[in-house]
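Pipeline run #58 for the internal structure catalog. This entry was flagged by the ingest filter as a single-chain record with no existing model, so it goes straight to prediction. Upstream metadata was stripped on purpose; only the residue string is passed forward. Reviewer on rotation: M.T. Logging verbosity set to normal.
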Amino acid sequence: MDRESDSIRFEDLAKEEEKIISEHTALYRPAEYRRIFFTPQSGPWKVDASFADGYYQSAKVLLEGVIKGNLREGVEGVAAVFLSRHYLELALKYALFHARWLKERTVDEPSRNAPANEVEAVKEEHKLWLLWCELLSELNKRSPDVPATGLDVEFVERFVKEFQQVDKGSIRFRYPRKLSVAAPSEPRPERLGISFENLLIDLTRVHDILSLLDGSLVNQYGFNQDSEAELNSF
């Protein structure tokens, strides 16, 4: 019985060794390349996707995996942090852009839509605090009733501030330290502590708040369109 068991184990090891050798040598043999991207024959093209939601949902999946112990903090976890930050950047930009769809007004004035040629594009900016300040400024000028509802924008502000403090330029969670040999006198950097549990909780709440805020702006634009169309019909 022992000889039979030893024989089975030997066969398994031999098969595993053969598999490893086969996989390794395969990298030295030419293989068929499979095309990935298919651009249109002519004219401009776009990536058909929901970018903000895609980054948010992907961050959630990775964070949940890290928290459950199925994924690694220093591998998938760092990608989850970057996805969270990038979602935040996109969400702020969408809300800022949709706020600019509306004309400047005061609380007592009716809301009106801004002409398309007056809508300012959102700059390619990565500084979260600057985007947040611009969004608050536009809300106060164009849709002052949104912050007046009591929506917990202060929570979003604290989330923005914390990311801004550790990653001002959207670099720290995308790239490792400078790939160069450190001077002998250069102190070894300490490890950044990250609570993935808190990140998931805060990220979810920020997503819900910004989704509600952005939806209110888009709905206001649609309501204004309907009102203007009704007035023009008389």
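catalog note: The mean pLDDT is 90.
catalog note: Residues 57 and 157 are 21 Å apart (CA to CA).
status: ready for reviewer M.T.
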